[in-house]
Design brief:
Blueprint (H helix, E strand, L loop, with lengths): L5 E4 L5 E4 L7 E4 L2 H16 L20
Antiparallel strand pairs: 1-2, 2-3
């Protein structure tokens, strides 16, 4: 999966990065390389399924889909 990220210089120094297609997925770093490493980790955590959040009606069905 490829996602576009936006990297911007931070007023405090370093960089801020966010993923427009994943609301609230944001990170920062001192260098661009560190910033990209940090946002990759943030994306992985953002997309990680949380079983506690899974609620399915009695007629519902859970399946997996690769993208």
């Amino acid at each position: 999966m490829n996602l576009k990220v936006v990297i911007e210089p931070s007023d405090e120094g370093g960089y801020t990065v966010y993923v427009p297609s994943l609301p609230g997925c944001i990170s920062e770093g001192e260098t661009k390389e560190e910033t990209l490493k940090n946002i990759k980790e943030a994306i992985e955590l953002y997309l990680e399924p949380v079983d506690d959040d899974l609620t399915v009606s009695e007629n519902g069905e859970v399946t997996e889909l690769a993208v």
